[in-house]
Amino acid sequence: MVLQVEKRTYEAKTQEIAKQLLAATRENRSFFTQMRDQMRWDDKLLAWAMGNPGLRVQLFRFIDCLPALRSKPEIAAHLQEYLTDESVELPAALKGMLNFASPDSMPGQVAATTVATAVEALAHKYIAGENVKQVLKTIERLRKDKMTFTLDLLGEAVITEAEAQSYLDRYLELMAQLVEAAKTWTPIAAIDKTETEDVSRVQVSVKLTAFYSQFDPLDAQGSEERVSSRIRILLRRAQELGAAVHFDMEQYAYKDLTLSILKQLLMEDEFRDRTDVGITIQAYLRDSEQDVRDLIAWVKQRGYPLTVRLVKGAYWDQETIKAVQKDWPQPVFNDKAATDANFETITELLLENHEYLYSAIGSHNVRSQAHAIAIAETLNIPHRRFEMQVLYGMGDKLAKALVEKGYRVRVYCPYGELLPGMAYLIRRLLENTANSSFLRQSLEERPVEELLAPPVVGEGDLGEQGKQGKQGEQGKQGEQGKQGELGVPSGDKGAQGESSLSFSNAADTDYADMDEIKHSQQAFQSVRQQLGKTYLPLINGEYQATQEKIDSVNPSDESEVIGRVGLISVEQAEQAMQAAKAAFPNWRRTPVTERAQVLRKAAELMEQRRAELASWMVLEVGKAVREADSEVTEAIDFCRYYASEMERLDQGYNYDLAGETNRYRYQPRGIVVVISPWNFPLAIATGMAVAALVSGNCTLLKPAETSCVIAAKLTEILVEAGIPKGVFQYVPGRGSKVGAYLVKHPDVHLIAFTGSQEVGCRIYADAAILQPGQKHLKRVIAEMGGKNALIVDESADLDQAVVGVVQSAFGYSGQKCSACSRVIVLEPIYDAFVQRLVEATRSLNIGAAESPSTQVGPVIDANARDRIREYIEKGRSESTVALEMPAPNTGYFIGPVIFSEVSPTATIAQEEIFGPVVAVLRVKDFTEAIAVANNTNYALTGGLYSRTPSHIQVAQEQFEVGNLYINRNITGAIVSRQPFGGFKLSGVGSKAGGPDYLLQFLEPRTVTENIQRQGFAPIEGVD
Ligand SMILES: Cc1cc2nc3c(=O)[nH]c(=O)nc-3n(C[C@H](O)[C@H](O)[C@H](O)COP(=O)(O)OP(=O)(O)OC[C@H]3O[C@@H](n4cnc5c(N)ncnc54)[C@H](O)[C@@H]3O)c2cc1C
């Protein structure tokens, strides 16, 4: 039954109640308390952070890193490094304290002790205890104040199955301990009873993703099965014990799957009548009102009520940054007022439907709580169906005031050790010190009318507008208000030039959206119906029959033929060369805007065929779905980026002076042979080919033999986009025969190659030989791989480092040129790191690339598999096998292998393996780490996990790699944002997707004209 009440009734009552609550939270503190607080460093730190955005960022970064620091000198050194950053304006007291000469000195030790103690005090404000004994004390204290609780176990990010199991086990044990303790608690009617029934004295709050280490919306079914099996155990045990369970809500990416899993579980016969379970809704999400409406409809069907905890949401900054980085629509509102208004809308919706959904209003905002009370009182809502919630340490006075008004108040109590609790602490600190936070504004004693005014929603957040719009436009609004606080850079692209500045990357598919998953499944079905077709070379605009054909097979199951591919003969290669020569004069004269238009059209076609192209890649080269999708994005970006880049370069530049004009312009080189690899069968083939084409060159594409079907799809797209005949030709053929013939051909001007070092060096040498009749020197662009290292130092966030190494080393089975194959770990954390890396890797699913649960698919073919096996044998003789995972027998699979205690000079630490094999090396300090990292023939990608600013600085200067990644994985470079390519034996040429790339396909010319005739020339400004 939905009751309709005049909105004004609520508003008048809201104001009245809010004023009372606010007055109660602002009661004067005793002189003694004020004095004591002024002396406390934890309060001072918070106050300074609020007054100085630069200090806020650096201080929170320091706090994040603090638990990893093992000694006082380390703490002192980091304090100095973080807080003496030029962005920080230090208050005098802190400046004085940090002015020590050496971290080992006495003043250094004093500073370390003072700040570490203050941070610990801060943590204790928000964390209800470090162990069960302490937390029980907290609970008893709360109960004395007539407040009940929900308990949350703080933990490291769950990245291994062992950790997921331990999370469940710890909750089972915790519930038993709490219930046992509860037997001794004196009953308190206000919180243990309602008009109609008893309320569980014990409640725990859990996070769904922590029940399965590979929780992934893309693998909805697999995640559901794994999570549900553990949650059933939890819910059964909770029922036996009489404890209630509440499910927290985490990041947006998990929201739909979380709701779907819980709805399915709670409909099962065994759990259908449970009313002591709760779900969380975050009002900062644009979807949230609809989610609540769906929940109401669903719970009506279920027939038994549940609790909804309504909160605003704890990940606003993270969601905003992610949306900006991924070019996805922003799931959260841009303006704080929109969140507040939505909170009120949902409060009303919940309370008006109190028979179906019990409300738990989680907020420290006096107005938000008062508004809920106003409705509850107006509608006379029974006590069982309505409670107020606050976080431990965040709203103590508000909680007391609410208790005094006779409401059931529940305090959310996180408990656990400080180290794993840091992420939680940082979230609270961010929230407390944000400009927009009610708590902060209240502390600043803003006028009551301002604090309690009804939220007014700005235009950017009205309706669904923002969510639907592309991030580029609507994201900016949100950034305006928050950027200073977040420290999100404004997109300053330095000296990159206009076209790069305005370049906007395509967006990957967001598989958190269930419709996208369905779309992807349909694409697979459609592609499967086309398997086994024949693909012929395209020569001079015609698909030509060939004598030789090969099967391209699915590496996940070699019995499945993806397509039959016609391979050209040397004679056909020559025909293609002649066709290219004939087409060149027209193509070079074609205006750049027209050439660019072909690329833009190709990008559009790829966007339309995105899911289909990704499916072909999954099946032909065994790349997992998400990574295949990102590759389509990269191919699209290459088309659009090079189109813009060529338009920029086409302007050339003029240098005119009196009597003389100088024109600097580019012309194409001629005929380009592109030899592309199988590991990025679409993106690299597209990138190299379209760069050549847009620069006015005629191009022959010879793809790797194992990825010819995808190259044929690219060909279809370029033809449909309008590429003229002879300008682009698709010439699959044997590398040793046709490839070599083309490389040595006297009419070829440039060879763009990506592949192994061995082949790259041969091409370089062959291309250098002047052939009879050849009137130019050939240019070679060769990208040839790496032996990429990731350094993990003692200050690193291990949660992040382990995940980053796993992704970098085992994503696409280690077959990316950027993949990590060496991890260099500092002595103090070596053993802990290896142990976690092994467990996290053991938790990966190995299987067919098509399966959404797969993290590690096959390697490309039998040759690759055998070669990798040889390296594994070599590794066994050189080092210790820390993990060797089994792999399926059909298909070309290799289970991930981790070698530990590897010497820097071992074969497996020096040679490129191109498989899921990683060597972990132990070093004594950071200087040695850099030396070991640089000690190979390659310089492609590298990475560092560190929270020590000076280490980050040294890596930036000394780590010899073309692409250095700090505190993130080292694969997945994005066009324009992270131009890609290396030096030393990793390759020759400028970075793909960067501002210099096209220059390689062009010849610059300067034309100087003397425009003076008989001493006369127009002079600007002179009549
Ligand atoms: C009992 C309890 C349980 C909780 N459980 C969860 C949970 O499971 N999941 C979860 O995510 N959070 C949870 N929270 C945390 C909660 O989300 C934050 O504490 C809450 O958002 C703070 O809001 P407020 O009403 O107290 O303060 P206010 O100061 O009124 O609101 C702050 C909130 O507004 C939002 N906001 C800030 N800036 C903007 C902006 N520019 N545009 C739009 N919105 C903005 C953010 O959500 C921010 O946290 C829980 C809180 C409580 C009390």
Helix/strand layout:
Blueprint: H1 7-25, H2 31-39, H3 41-51, H4 53-65, H5 72-83, H6 92-98, H7 106-126, H8 132-144, E1 148-153, H9 161-182, H10 189-192, E2 203-206, H11 220-241, E3 244-247, H12 255-265, E4 277-282, H13 288-302, E5 306-311, H14 316-326, H15 336-352, E6 357-362, H16 366-379, E7 386-391, H17 396-404, E8 409-415, H18 418-433, H19 438-443, H20 448-452, H21 465-468, H22 471-486, H23 498-502, H24 514-528, E9 533-535, E10 538-539, E11 542-543, E12 548-554, E13 557-567, H25 570-589, H26 592-608, H27 610-621, H28 625-650, E14 653-654, E15 660-668, E16 671-676, H29 683-694, E17 698-703, H30 708-720, E18 728-730, H31 735-744, E19 750-754, H32 757-768, E20 779-783, E21 788-792, H33 798-810, E22 820-826, H34 827-842, H35 862-878, E23 880-884, E24 897-900, H36 907-910, E25 917-923, H37 926-934, E26 938-939, E27 941-945, H38 949-958, E28 963-966, E29 983-984, E30 987-988, E31 1002-1010
Parallel strand pairs: 1-2, 1-8, 2-3, 3-4, 4-5, 5-6, 6-7, 7-8, 9-13, 16-17, 16-19, 17-18, 19-20, 21-22, 21-27, 22-25, 24-25, 27-28
Antiparallel strand pairs: 10-11, 12-13, 14-15, 15-31, 20-30, 23-24, 26-29
Helix pairs in contact: 1-16, 1-17, 3-4, 3-7, 4-5, 4-18, 5-7, 7-18, 9-11, 11-12, 13-15, 14-22, 15-16, 24-27, 25-31, 26-28, 27-28, 28-29, 33-34
Helix count from the secondary structure assignment:
38
Distance between the termini: 87 Å
Low-pLDDT residue intervals, each spanning 5 or more residues = 465-499
Question: Strand order, biggest sheet?
Answer: 1-2-3-4-5-6-7-8
Query: Structural class, judged by helices and strands?
Result: alpha/beta
Helix amount: 40-55%
Range of strand content? 15-25%
Residue-averaged pLDDT, rounded? 93
Rg estimate, integer Å: 32 Å
Question: What ligand molecules are bound, each kind once?
Answer: flavin-adenine dinucleotide
For the biggest sheet, the summary is: 8 strands, parallel, barrel
Give a count of the beta strands, DSSP E runs of length 2 or more: 31
Shape: globular
